[in-house]
């Protein structure tokens, strides 16, 4: 019952969808309080309360399912994954070095800190992350080579870190969720479809993933569907019908009785 409540009954929903098979939930032991305390001491931050209660109940979360494209072609595509607590690590080791590197230096460092503006796609407003030398960014998951899901502490004293998507190529921040609980519910609402976080990115979904969305959850793409921006003109008038002349179907000319008798006499 714990995992059913944690996943909000997602397994039952997926089992009722045609072609979805092998719905599997990996059960894990909870973390000890000493493990949570050791993680917080190592990184000099406090886990938010909801995230701490999550890891004291289960050390991560792994839920996946497969889709049957054909009788002989079954592939694992759906996946909701939260790593073990010990696997949540900093995106960068020394933020002070990154901040002090001059643009003219030849030292190659990941310029994550240099782009601190992000676009909240839900409101369309441009917000600013107050990142500084004391900020901490933890990686929750990686989406291929396209983006990283990050837990962002603007300051170590912050008790409410937010979840952001960091686009790898453009190094832009996209806001995902206000809290860990909200991010977990978003992953469940998106059925664990592959790369669902990219719905909130500027690069968008890959074509094959978008096809799965259209098959299994088209309502999740409605707000981003360009077709909704088009004005559909409704005309109340009856459409013009073609009027056919029955005479076009006559292959023989009508002739009088006298003409017929003359032909017979000849």
Automatic annotation (TrEMBL):
It comes from the Eukaryota. SMART domains: SMI1_KNR4. Residues 30-186 form the Knr4/Smi1-like domain. SUPFAM superfamilies: SMI1/KNR4-like (SSF160631). This is Knr4/Smi1-like domain-containing protein.
